[in-house]
Amino acid sequence: MPESYYERLSALDASFLGFEERNARWHEAAVMVFDAKPLRNGGGGLDFERILNNYEWSFETVPRYRQRIAKIPFLDHPVWVDDPSFNVRYHIRQIALPQPADERILKRVCGYLLEIPLDMEKPPWEVWIVDGLENDQFAIVTKIHHCMADGISGLGIIQTLLGVQPFSRKGTPPTWTARPAPGGLELVRAEVNRRLRAPLELLAALKTTDEALDNARDVLEGLIEASKLGWRPASNTPFNPKSIGPHRRFDWTALSLARIKEAKARLGGTINDVVLATAAGALGHFLREHRTSTTDIDFRTLIPVSVRSKKEKKLGNQVAMVMAKLPVGEHDPVARLQQVIETTQRLKASKQALGVAWLEGLADKIGGRLFTELSRSATRSRPFNVAVTNVPGPQFPLYFLESKMNAIYPMMPLFPNQALAIAVLSYDGRVFWGFNSDWDALPDVHSLVEAIGEQFAKLHAAATGTGSTHLTI
User: Fold this and answer.
1) pLDDT by residue (tens digit) across 252-265?
2) What is the pLDDT of residues 102-152, one digit of tens each?
3) How far is the C-alpha of 86 from the C-alpha of 73, rounded, in Å?
4) Is the pLDDT reported for residue 49 higher than 90?
5) pLDDT, mean of residues 403-430
6) What average pLDDT does this structure show over 385-389?
7) Angle at the Cα of 352 (from 76 to 307), degrees rounded to 5?
8) In this predicted model, what pLDDT tens digit does every residue of 314-362 receive, in sequence order?
């Protein structure tokens, strides 16, 4: 009889399950666009069996694909167990766009696909293969629940399907057999023992050494910094309705990475600083267009900061959520960038991320339910206006079998009182922006997307002295 198997979700992973609501689904996603010709079959359609086979080979690297969520009885903490009824054809579906299909049609279809909730009784992911895009392209729309991965580990999951050059998969992967899940008593016993050990582990960590005292001071300072922003509401804006609706608009754009690097080389800062300054300019323009004053506005962004080491390949979430004020009221693009640089430098020098990460670790030891409730309560008080995440990706072409990936647009989920989330990912010389929005609150999100290009063009022109505000990607 094989031994039972399970993996416990961290408190942070579990908190993303707790964010799930009827109109706020907590899956993240990506829309990838590929050349279709190399994967066409004799009838002119996509070779769906080859696509499935590539996914099944990736399951050998990412076993989480075939695992579902179970709960520890009474204590209600989630764990990963193998799904004995796993069926790849349930999770990967194929559709075709109405013809003629341009990028605008794909965006509308993606908005619909991304608003569909995942089936949480099964492994929490699904993929849509979307054929019929103009210029003989197809898209892969991939959705995974945030409890499964953060932006960096999610990109790692995607990359198990891709190669740095065209490739093929020969044969079928080894037969997979689900490991039996533990019984309820076994789960309860292990969790109770874990929580009983927690006080001793905490005491051991609080040794009265100078290094430990310094760390404790840093953590306390970080918690105080986080609480100053976390419990005081940001300004009310059109991005923050009392509650969002069930429908989504998903839009996107792309900028030249070389031009972003040119701007930062002339004006200072980092790629992320330029991204935030560009977002601040576009958000400010959008607010003013919607008759919202940006004078003396306290506009804040939530920024996920990775706390994993460069060598860390572990799945799940290893991020600390920190907040920063964005200068959306500043009209001058250069001054706006300098203000962003000052803000991010203060953020890096602060202990905010350390304090949040320590709180996440403490919750993991004593049980995550309190952490989840605190997180939910904090977000409901509107401590930030929008979320912006920026994930660095590979700067060389990637291939799904023989098909080159031409674009990848990331999506970040929405909180219940947040109508917009901006996700940014760099790939092969371009910086791809994905805008997830509530259709009811922001029916014209496309004007914000257009403003991204316009605001960056102004910043680039100011940096290079060209005087041109024409954007070329």
Assistant:
1) 999 999 999 999 99
2) 999 999 999 999 999 999 999 999 999 999 999 999 999 999 999 998 888
3) 23
4) yes
5) 96
6) 96
7) 65
8) 677 777 778 889 999 999 999 999 999 999 998 887 766 666 666 666 6
Residue 280 pLDDT > 70, yes or no? yes
3-state secondary structure (DSSP) of residue 48: helix
The DSSP 8-state label assigned to residue 46 in this structure reads B
pTM score, whole prediction = 0.92
Distance of CA 84 to the CA centre of its chain: 29
How many whole angstroms from its chain centre is CA 428?
Answer: 19
Residue 24: other Cβ atoms inside 10 A: 18
83 and 68 in contact (C-beta within 8 Å)?
yes
For 118, 123, 131, 336, 371, the CA distances from 141, given in Å and listed in that order, are: 13, 17, 11, 35, 31
Select from 399, 392, 395 the least CA-distant residue to 164.
399
Coil, helix or strand at residue 293: coil
| 2 vs 335: CA distance, rounded Å | 64
Q: What pLDDT, on a 0 to 100 scale, did the predictor assign at position 315?
A: 73
Q: Which amino acid is at 170?
A: K
How far is it, in rounded angstroms, from Cα 81 to Cα 84?
Answer: 9
Residue 255's DSSP bridge partners are 431
DSSP 54-102: HHHHHTTT-GGGGEEEEE-TTT--EEEEE-TT--HHHHEEEEEPPSS--
Q: What is the mean pLDDT of the chain?
A: 89
Buried b (16+ CB within 10 A) or exposed e, 224-263: ebbeebbeeebbebebbbeebeeebbbbbbbbbbebbeeb
The three-class DSSP label of residue 34 is strand
